[in-house]
Amino acid sequence: MDDTSFLAERLDRAAAPLAVGDVLVLLALLTVGTVNHTGVDFLLDDPVYLLGVWAPFLIGWALFAPLVGAYSAGAVETAKSSVPLAIRSWVPAAVVGFVLREFAFRGNAAPTFMAITFVLGALALGGWRAIYFRVR
């Protein structure tokens, strides 16, 4: 019997650059969206505002990316394996983000926001990972 836990099989040290990149991409996406809709005045008025924007989606990502295998050994092999794992992780992570945003953090989860966030998040995560495997 193998003593390796389910989660241990889903986390590979070699995926650390992917994890860092994924988080940076999500932070950038959410920041650009926030600035696009609110301007930059929130930085002076409420400097921690972005934390409330980022937190729901980062919590969702932290919960689902490891479970889906976004940082597994398979994720570090090729873009062909890594990109779909990131996108499959994003879907449930975003759902958690929307629920948390609606009920526990500032903001709402309007249908248009959800649709755009689903699509742009998948494109951003998948795109960054595709680029990563081309340049590494």
Per DSSP, the total helix count is 6
Strand content: under 5%
Low-confidence stretches: none
The coarse overall form would be globular
Radius of gyration: 16 Å
The number of E-state strands comes to: 0
Helix content: over 70%
How is the main sheet built? Answer: none
The chain-level mean pLDDT equals 92
Distance between the termini: 36 Å
SSE run = HHHHHH
Question: What do these coordinates show?
Answer:
It comes from Halorubrum alkaliphilum. Pfam families: DUF3054. The radius of gyration is 16 Å and the shape is globular. The protein has 136 residues and is mainly alpha-helical. The chain starts with 5 loop residues before the first helix and ends with a helix. The relative contact order is 0.16. The chain contains six helices and no strands. It has helices at 6-10, 16-38, 42-45, 49-68, 79-103, 111-135.
Describe the secondary-structure layout.
Layout: H1 6-10, H2 16-38, H3 42-45, H4 49-68, H5 79-103, H6 111-135
Helix pairs in contact: 2-4, 2-6, 4-5, 5-6
Describe what is shown at a glance:
With 136 residues, the protein is an all-alpha fold. 75% of the residues lie in helices and 0% in strands.
Main attributes of the structure:
single chain, 136 residues, mainly alpha, 6 helices
